[in-house]
Write a structure and sequence with these properties.
The chain is mostly helical and 96 residues long. The protein contains five helices and no strands.
């Protein structure tokens, strides 16, 4: 579990650093999405992970967690998770 946490943090760092050029990371994100199938990840898991991530960021950032920061992180996670779900399971699964 600790290793997965490190991987998640490393991935988030790359994503945050690449948000200005999202198309450059989408091939890697697509590959990652397809690997998640091997780990047993289901489309519904993405919402729970997103909620936990946003909760953690809110607690960690404290007063720096402004409505603008919350909106930016929510939009970034939603965009990437919807893309990953679509890549892994197809567009209809993204609606579940």
């Amino acid at each position: 579990m600790a290793e997965q946490g490190r991987k998640l943090m490393a991935t988030l760092a790359v994503v945050v650093g690449s948000l200005h050029s999202l198309p450059t990371i989408l091939p890697a994100v697509s590959t990652l999405a397809k690997k998640h199938i091997e780990y047993g990840v289901k489309p519904g898991h993405y919402a729970a992970v997103g909620a936990a991530l946003l909760w953690t960021l809110e607690r960690g950032l404290g007063q720096s967690w402004t409505p603008e920061v919350a909106s930016a992180w929510t939009n970034a996670y939603t965009t990437l998770s919807n893309f990953m779900i679509g890549e892994a399971y197809g567009a209809p699964a993204a609606a579940k």
